[in-house]
């Protein structure tokens, strides 16, 4: 819970700064002072408060906040990204526009060398002297009046500061805001549609040097990051189970982040997992979100639903006349929580027969470095969501050794599935939901 609150606090600070920028670009720069600008300011403030309110509220059961809050979070991100991208071209346009207008012409000098008076309304030049009384142009003590009816000595109305055109600047700001708004809305809508679409199947064949020839073609249906929660319920689970069962797999591996909530809240949504079918069993390892959601209760619940939970343990799989070790380690989030142990590779893999191939289930790809030290042949992971929304895949790559698909670390193969659900915004851009079928090949 403290980890979640800390994350929410940091998120509130960052989103506050983001909304300040959005107010400047979408409200202050596009609206003249007045009622409209004030309304826009209050709206941006409300949206800024909505983000942390959603993060805290959904943890407390206020699920009605999920749709507006999480959708705005995605829209906010793409608005920010697009407006930042537009900063440079907008700056160039302003500079070019100012260059075309050129610098202001210097005022002509008097004969005595002093600067001439500025042009006045209606005069076209220096101020005209006050007319004699009775000529209809003014009286002693009155303000001199120019031919156009304006007071003599008043600077010309609408005279702009050199290099500055308020009308042009306003038009440019409004154009950028409209473009960013429409584009961000389009991307977010596309992402929502993708996130709620049926998972795509990724088929991959991975050779293992130690795999007996009799076990060639052994298939493991792999899914991660289902993320049952306020926006993904029982129907989401049923669809995933139906797809997995259609694969006729030998093993099923659920590699963490099943839920975002307690057993009391999401137990019915997870119930369809009881229907998973495979020849040699279904297995589960914890992800980081299980530690935010009551890991001990969920381990018991998943076990009740018929999945074997591998908590720093391994299972001997005898199939087709061969033997394979299927192992699982707890997520690194369990370290130091006082709730459940973190990953223990020695307890999981120590003392095993090194002639057997071993497939390790580990939620986070970063655990592959330790897995390679213990001679793991293949690690199956999730966690990354493939970035979930482009360009977050580049950020994830700074934290994990692989974002999606296959990678190799020494003699250890790593395969990262991009997840069947979503976390936070119900949006996937460039990374559709996925279920993977991993087929093992003898080398």
From TrEMBL:
<feature type="domain" description="Calcineurin-like phosphoesterase">
    <location>
        <begin position="218"/>
        <end position="386"/>
    </location>
</feature>
<protein>
    <submittedName>
        <fullName>Metallophosphoesterase</fullName>
    </submittedName>
</protein>
<feature type="transmembrane region" description="Helical">
    <location>
        <begin position="43"/>
        <end position="64"/>
    </location>
</feature>
<keyword id="KW-1133">Transmembrane helix</keyword>
<dbReference type="InterPro" id="IPR004843">
    <property type="entry name" value="Calcineurin-like_PHP"/>
</dbReference>
<dbReference type="Pfam" id="PF00149">
    <property type="entry name" value="Metallophos"/>
</dbReference>
<dbReference type="InterPro" id="IPR051158">
    <property type="entry name" value="Metallophosphoesterase_sf"/>
</dbReference>
<feature type="transmembrane region" description="Helical">
    <location>
        <begin position="70"/>
        <end position="93"/>
    </location>
</feature>
<keyword id="KW-0472">Membrane</keyword>
<keyword id="KW-0812">Transmembrane</keyword>
<feature type="transmembrane region" description="Helical">
    <location>
        <begin position="171"/>
        <end position="192"/>
    </location>
</feature>
<dbReference type="InterPro" id="IPR029052">
    <property type="entry name" value="Metallo-depent_PP-like"/>
</dbReference>
<keyword id="KW-0479">Metal-binding</keyword>
<feature type="transmembrane region" description="Helical">
    <location>
        <begin position="6"/>
        <end position="23"/>
    </location>
</feature>
<keyword id="KW-0378">Hydrolase</keyword>
<feature type="region of interest" description="Disordered">
    <location>
        <begin position="103"/>
        <end position="160"/>
    </location>
</feature>
């Amino acid at each position: 819970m403290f980890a979640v609150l800390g994350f929410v606090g940091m998120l509130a600070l960052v989103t506050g700064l983001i909304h300040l920028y959005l107010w400047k670009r979408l409200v202050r720069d596009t609206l003249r002072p007045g009622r409209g600008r004030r309304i826009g300011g209050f709206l941006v403030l409300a949206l800024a408060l909505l983000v942390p309110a959603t993060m805290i509220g959904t943890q407390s059961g206020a699920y009605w906040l999920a749709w507006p809050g999480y959708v705005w979070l995605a829209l906010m991100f793409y608005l920010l990204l697009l407006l930042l991208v537009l900063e440079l071209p907008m700056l160039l346009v302003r500079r070019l526009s100012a260059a075309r207008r050129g610098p202001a012409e210097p005022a002509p000098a008097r004969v005595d060398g002093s600067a001439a008076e500025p042009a006045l309304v209606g005069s076209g030049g220096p101020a005209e002297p006050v007319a004699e009384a009775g000529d209809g142009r003014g009286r002693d003590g009155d303000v001199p009046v120019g031919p156009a009816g304006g007071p003599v000595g008043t600077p010309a109305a609408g005279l702009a500061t050199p290099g500055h055109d308020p009308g042009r600047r306003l038009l440019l700001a409004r154009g950028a805001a409209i473009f960013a708004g429409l584009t961000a809305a389009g991307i977010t809508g596309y992402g929502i549609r993708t996130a709620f679409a049926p998972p795509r199947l990724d088929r991959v064949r991975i050779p293992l040097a130690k795999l007996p020839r009799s076990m060639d073609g052994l298939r493991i249906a792999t899914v991660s990051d289902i993320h049952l929660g306020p926006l993904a319920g029982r129907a989401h689970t049923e669809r995933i189970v139906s797809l997995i069962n259609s694969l006729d797999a030998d093993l099923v591996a659920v590699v963490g982040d099943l839920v975002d909530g307690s057993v009391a809240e999401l137990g019915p949504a997870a119930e369809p997992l009881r229907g998973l079918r495979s020849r040699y069993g279904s297995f589960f390892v914890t992800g980081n979100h299980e530690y935010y959601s009551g890991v001990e209760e969920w381990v018991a619940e998943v076990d009740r639903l018929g999945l074997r939970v591998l908590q720093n343990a391994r299972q001997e799989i005898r199939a087709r006349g061969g033997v394979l070790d299927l192992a699982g380690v707890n997520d690194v989030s369990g370290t130091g929580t006082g709730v459940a142990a973190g990953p223990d590779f020695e307890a999981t893999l120590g003392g095993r027969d090194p002639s057997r191939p071993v497939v390790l289930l580990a939620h986070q790809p970063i655990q592959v470095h330790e897995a390679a030290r213990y001679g793991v042949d293949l690690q199956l992971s999730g966690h990354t969501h493939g970035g979930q929304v482009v360009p977050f895949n580049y950020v994830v790559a700074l934290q994990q050794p692989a974002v999606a698909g296959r990678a190799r670390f020494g003699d250890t193969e790593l395969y990262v599935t991009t997840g069947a659900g979503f976390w936070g915004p119900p949006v996937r851009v460039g990374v559709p939901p996925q279920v993977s079928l991993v087929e093992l090949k003898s080398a």
